[in-house]
Amino acid sequence: MKADSSGKSYTVKEATLKLMQYCAYRDRSQKEVEDKLLEMRMIPAAREEIIIKLMQEDFLNEERFARSFVRGKFRIKKWGRYKIQQELKARDISSPIIKLAMTEIEESVYKTTLYELAEKKLNLLSEEDKFKLKKKLGDYLIRKGYESSLVYEVTEDLIQA
């Protein structure tokens, strides 16, 4: 039995139930669950036992987490592939799972989204110099995580010199 930062102590069973609720609310990565267990000050043996139990009962599934993460960040936040991959790596998701999850993004939808995002940003930019305009638009799209080759293609398409 260990205590979290609020002083509450948890048995393995209580911690498991709490983490089942935590994982049921939305998909979580194993790293997020491990961080939560550390926050609860669970001992290493208990942490391992709880993580195994969560995986066996399908509360914790890295592939499902990665796929839903990719869908959400692309559809809602309009992030590009590069930014999504970097964020998944930061969450300790393995490369094969990242590669599999990235198949959630269809190429045609990806390019359409990139063009829509670029057009929307272009309408907000007030710059007379076309080179500066291309630079500002390109920088924005790169920050969103889109590949530089696609960004170049889109900026050249939308801004004729």
UniProtKB/TrEMBL annotation:
The keyword Cytoplasm applies. It comes from Salinimicrobium profundisediminis. InterPro entries: RecX_HTH_2nd, RecX_HTH_3rd, Regulatory_RecX, WH-like_DNA-bd_sf. GO terms for biological process: regulation of DNA repair. Belongs to the RecX family. Pfam families: RecX_HTH2, RecX_HTH3. Keywords: Cytoplasm. Residues 61-102 form the RecX second three-helical domain. GO terms for cellular component: cytoplasm. Modulates RecA activity. Residues 113-154 form the RecX third three-helical domain. This is Regulatory protein RecX. Gene3D superfamilies: Winged helix-like DNA-binding domain superfamily/Winged helix DNA-binding domain (1.10.10.10). It is found in: Cytoplasm.
